[in-house]
Design goal:
Oligomer: heterodimer
Number of helices of chain B: 2
Helix content of chain A: 10-25%
Number of helices of chain A: 9
Shape of chain A: globular
Largest interface: A-B, 23 and 25 residues
Strand content of chain B: over 45%
Strand order of the largest sheet of chain A: 1-6-7-5-2-4
Helix content of chain B: 10-25%
Largest sheet of chain A: 6 strands, mixed
Strand order of the largest sheet of chain B: 4-3-2-1-10-9-8-7-6-5
Order of helices and strands of chain B: HHEEEEEEEEEE
């Protein structure tokens, strides 16, 4: 959900006839709240409703199709859907559903789930295995949700998870506050669709919980709207990816795009070691050579502008912190073990996921350089140069805003 | 009359504006203020979330120039449509279409984010002002045109306003457009069109 205020976590009950059966990503502490919504080969059926203030319906459909294509490519990149899962209690083994199909007749859903007079219970029944993209004025289901969680620019509100079919629909609502901006609307739809596919807040760029702050696209040189990952906020590490650690624009008027002023970040020892000038600018990139669950081989490149001077070195980074929270898509449901006993459990689809915190020591110019690479609301790179009395610490996205 | 005038603004071709050419009588007051009002409505809609790049990548944008022919659909009703687009690099686009009388209408829209096109037509019985503003999205693949039209007449109890938004992009080799207008006397209009290049 895109939020202007922080979500209040915890169990929240309204009178049962209003709220019964609805749950929401991030809105309560049910074990299935972060579930991927749909499993199986059958495409996800969906309808679109737009209010007067919303973009044209055809435009919304185009945004949904484009967003879905991006999510499919993302899942394919990390092979997320190939994650090993046991057999469901219904005897099936199935993967997340990544195909959508526009319903030919949405009249009944439009009547029950409309903004004018919502029949909450009927709407829930109709959306048990379908999705309604509601763009513009919120209906009563959305209003109830906003009343609990505070104002927002969008929300993905799922019906109660069906652990018999493992297919559960709901409402994806986008406020039409920015109806004239194709990029903003596309980004918001991309974010909310991420919840359908089990993506958690802050797991990658588009899923930033405070994305409302990030909608000013001039703040970052790479643009960012309409992208699932960003060079400074990937979901994980994949061979060939290039990470970008100096992308936040600072107020220094003369900074080239993607470069930081040397003297503001590099102490005298670092400047001497790198042979950089205080009044020039530097950029750091990291190319992923190889990655696995708890390791990444990275080639770091330091570049100075305007001199063009460059230094590169490779380093192996390992997870030395041990067990950690994996923010991969997941499903809490009922499964069958080898003895055909049924049991409830959360399974993570974490294929392609690499540890959030990696450390290593690089050999460069005959010296040892300590490096720590983290993913926490964006990339955080920490480097200790030899003989320096402090670390170079670069937090790329939201870290400074917490 | 109001319905006919306002609906003509979004009928027919995507960007072609069909205006009734009036007699030049200065019967109605505040022609200039109507135009300014329309401009203000546009600026309020488009002021945020768009930054202009006037120097780099000006030639890196979707190309829409050509004569396009296709079908528009609204609520299951289809109609044929044809119009011509001329494009000047990434800075402006012009729509050329024929009105109901067969006269050619040309509308040029600035896409640099710096210009709002506005015009007022006034006559004995009415005054019509419209304002248009166009912009690219961030990767210059989608054009959005926001418009506002105001009609004033001594025969109407209040100023009538209509807003419309047009989005245009390529889908493969096809040109697709999405048009929405609100404030019409006969309700909102939401139209999707798909065109193929004729020449």
């Amino acid at each position: 959900m895109i939020k202007k205020t922080n979500i209040l976590l915890g169990i929240v009950f309204l009178s049962s006839w209003v709220w019964a059966g609805w749950s929401s990503n991030g809105g309560n502490n049910s074990l299935d709240k972060d579930n991927i919504w749909f499993f199986g080969q059958e495409p996800i059926p969906y309808c679109i409703m737009t209010s007067s203030s919303a973009p044209p319906k055809g435009a919304v459909q185009m945004m949904i199709q484009q967003s879905n294509q991006k999510w499919k490519s993302f899942f394919a990149k990390y092979k997320i859907a190939d994650s090993e899962l046991p057999t469901f209690a219904n005897g099936t083994k199935s993967k997340p559903t990544l195909e959508l199909k526009l319903e030919s007749n949405c009249t009944e859903i439009e009547v029950a789930c409309g903004s004018q007079k919502t029949d909450v219970n009927k709407c829930e029944q109709l959306l048990a295995d379908k999705i309604l993209f509601l763009i513009g004025s919120p209906n009563q289901v959305v209003k109830n949700y906003l009343q609990i969680n505070g104002s927002a620019m969008g929300a993905a509100i799922r019906t109660e998870f069906n652990n018999k079919t493992n297919r559960s629909g709901g409402i994806v609502w986008i406020s039409s506050a920015n109806s004239s901006s194709w990029d903003v609307n596309s980004h918001m739809i991309l974010h909310e669709m991420g919840h359908i596919y089990g993506m958690k807040h802050d797991s990658t760029w588009v899923m930033a919980e405070n994305v409302a702050k990030l909608l000013n696209q001039t703040f970052y040189s790479f643009g960012g709207l309409g992208m699932i990952e960003a060079p400074n906020w990937p979901y994980s590490y994949s061979s060939g990816d290039v990470l970008f650690f100096t992308d936040k624009r600072f107020a220094d008027v003369g900074s080239p795009k993607g470069f930081y002023k040397n003297k503001y970040f590099l102490d005298t020892i670092a400047l001497e070691f790198l042979e950089f000038q205080p009044e020039s600018y530097f950029q750091i990139k990291g190319e992923i050579i190889y990655s696995s669950y708890s390791q990444a081989h990275v080639k770091f490149t330091f570049e100075e502008s305007p001199s063009g001077k460059m230094h590169s070195f490779e380093v192996r980074l390992d997870n030395v912190m041990g067990a950690e929270e994996r923010n991969a898509p997941q499903i809490y449901s009922k499964w069958l073990n080898e003895k055909n006993d049924q049991y409830f459990s959360t399974k993570k689809l974490d294929k392609g996921w690499v540890s959030n915190s990696l450390m290593g020591v690089a050999d460069f110019k005959g010296e040892k350089i300590a490096i720590k690479l983290e993913r926490k609301k964006g990339l955080i790179l920490s480097i200790h140069f030899p003989k320096s009395d402090r670390w170079l610490h670069l937090a790329t996205v939201q870290y400074d805003w917490d | 009359m109001k319905t006919t005038l306002i609906n003509k603004l979004v009928a027919g071709s995507v960007l072609g504006l069909i205006l009734v050419v009036p007699q030049s009588h200065a019967f109605l007051p505040t022609v200039t203020s109507l135009e300014n009002q329309a401009k203000k409505i546009i600026m309020k809609e488009r002021a945020s979330n768009y930054k202009v790049k006037t120097k780099d990548d000006q030639n890196s944008c979707a190309q829409f120039a050509g004569t396009w022919k296709g079908t528009c659909e609204e609520n299951g009703t289809k109609r044929e449509s044809e119009f011509k687009l001329e494009q000047t690099a990434c800075s402006s686009i012009a729509s050329i279409s024929k009105d109901e009388s067969g006269n050619q209408q040309r509308t040029t829209i600035d896409l640099t984010g710096m210009g709002i096109k506005s015009e007022t037509q006034s006559g004995v019985f009415f005054s019509l002002s419209y304002a248009l503003a166009g912009k690219w999205n961030s990767d210059k693949q989608v054009i959005t045109v926001d418009g506002s039209a105001l009609v004033n007449s001594p025969f109407m109890s209040s100023l009538q306003k209509m807003d419309f938004s047009i989005q245009m992009m390529k889908d493969g080799n096809d040109l697709v457009t999405f048009n929405k207008s609100t404030g019409n006397s006969d309700g909102d209009h939401d139209t999707s069109c798909r065109y193929q290049l004729v020449k």
